[in-house]
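Ticket opened by: R.M.
Priority: normal
Category: complex prediction / small molecule

The reporter submitted a protein together with zinc ion and asked that the result be attached to this ticket for the collaborator who will pick it up next week. Submitted input follows.
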Amino acid sequence: MADLHQTPTSLCCCRKSLPVSGGLCAGEPGRPSAGPGPGPRSPRRPRVDVASASNFRSFTLHHFHLDLRLNFAVKEMRGWLVLDLVPVQPGVCTLVLDSHPSLLIHSIDCKIPGSGDRGPEDPVSLTYRVDPFTDYGSSLNISLPTGTRPGQRIQITVRYTTTDGPAIWWLDPELTCGRSRPLVFTQGHSVYNRSFFPCFDTPAVKTTYSATVRVPEGVTVLMSASRSSYSKQDRVFQFSMEFPVPSYLVALVAGELHHADMGPRSRVWAEPCLLSCAVKKLGGSVERWLGVAEDLFGPYLWGRCDIVFLPPSFPIVAMENPCLTFIIASILESSEFLLIDVIHEIAHGWFGNAVTNATWEEMWLSEGLATYAQRRITTEAYGEAFTCLETVVRLDALHRQLRLLGDDNPVSKLQVKFEPGVNPSSLMNLFTYEKGFCFVSYLSQLSGDVRRFDCFLRDYISEFQFQSVVAQDLIDFFLSYFPELKDEAVSQREGLEFERWLSGCGPPPYEPDLSAGGALIGPVQDLCDLWRGPAPPDPLSLAPFDLSSWSTFQIVLFLDRMLDRSPLHHEVMSRLSSCYSSLLDGLNAEVQIRWLQMVVRNSFYPDLPRVRVFLHKHTSRMYTVPLYEDLVAGVMKCVAVEIFYQTQLRLHPNLRRTLQHILFQTGPAPPPSSPPSTPPLQPLPAATATSPTTATASTTATASSTGTPASIALLDVNVSA
Ligand SMILES: [Zn+2]
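Result attached by the on-call engineer:
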């Protein structure tokens, strides 16, 4: 792990202090529309969120409370939800919430606090109806009491039980790392939390929340909340999130979890068997990274910055749940990837969590900005060369995707317009991250000074913290912040028009200069060039290249670029194996999986036992799906089937279904409404389906400017939601 210990320097002196909005984003009346100009501004309101069935614009949601009892034996959460809200539009007689067929609604009632003689203070039972919405949710229509007036505070209580919804992942003991106790976690991004609790499931709405969670003895509960307490006698955990968050950032994990403090505001949580490794890997780094981020972008707003490591069944790499990042334990062995992933999630504390994309069509506002911020942090903490090397690996992957998909594919747009019914999670891809990063880098370049742009981002957070924004808010703020650029009409520069950035297909119109990484990247390319020909290179020419002294990202870049050239001549593959296979076998999984993909794609049987060993060891989606896809696409399908039958009982049922679909093409592909670990996979031919990247979220993107669904298998690089 590169650890250059550069001291971050804060040159920001331009921070403006603005009041916190309070996050009352849903249909708040009387707020002006956004626009450049003096004084605090309100972000623009998206007209509609096609991914939500709710009528969120008709209400202001002040707070909600969850009271749940967890039952591991039957894999259910049972309890109630209390919504504290105010109608803001005259004539509203129905409250429509996002829900899911897996939620069993028992009763709904309404209370009007402090109403005295103006209405019922005692709860009144309400009628309700559940209607179909999409394959990822339903709409819960609740008839409000007659005479409910705008401005009148009401409390709606929904009593319900969760069953097997896509947000909630119950793990039997054998699927945990310790294999002795069950565990449950939730994963709400993007539209799954409607199967956790009925809600306004749109990123446009933010609110505070609290929760009471009752559990069996020996179970620890954690939530994405700023405060928590525990009554051992009652086995009840209490949580309070005092900062407004969108529904998708409400998260819970419960199991045998122990902790260790890493710093004054950071604690690592993990199953007991993992804890010492997690502590050793992270140490005091989290506090250091937080300090660097604060110097760049202003105060960390969330108080706690805890991290919980989850078993390999966790369907993605990491999730930026506020106060409590979720991260897959499988990444622990790959130190440089762990570093990048944790820093990325920390960056979301500012970009994505404090200021959130108001619709799922502009996810790049969270991911592009978080990726830019992550790289600013790594530049300050580990140097520009390290950051450039990591960036090259990702931009290589972006261009690989473009070669597969074609420049005119609509999934390459930053602003994706999706039709009603399309699952937003299916549109999260490398472009969301890396094209978004390039646009932010372009804005930084326009500002003329990266430090000046840091100040801009700091003030952007200050301006919009705890609110949800659209891209135009960012652009308006940018142009008002840099009036000289507005005067130069930079948004209209030919070929680099902001509109083209947002709505255009194809590669980024601009990519940042990465030449500062030359000392690290150059040797990688030189070694690739040596292996270019149909015959192996002269051993003497290889002598200067000692891979054992290379960083993980250097080796990953080398293997990615060699994978791009596969299939290779057998003689070349044979020499590659004799030169590197033993060395790579002792390195981390991010390196190993790339080498094994080369083995499979080139049908190099001598190293096939290593593939078997790897797939017996690794049970996460990120380290199984890419290899199975390669095995099936090539001539080794029978090997894949054999390994699957030997290991399937150690795989989460959702992953098992995905692999069964890859292997046997049986039944319909798991729909996008399935948990995010089970998107439908449509293996492409080996040359295309198996991107030489670590696929950690393989999605079927369905987007079409013509409205005609076009399914494309996308393998994302290390997607951290
Ligand atoms: Zn992210």
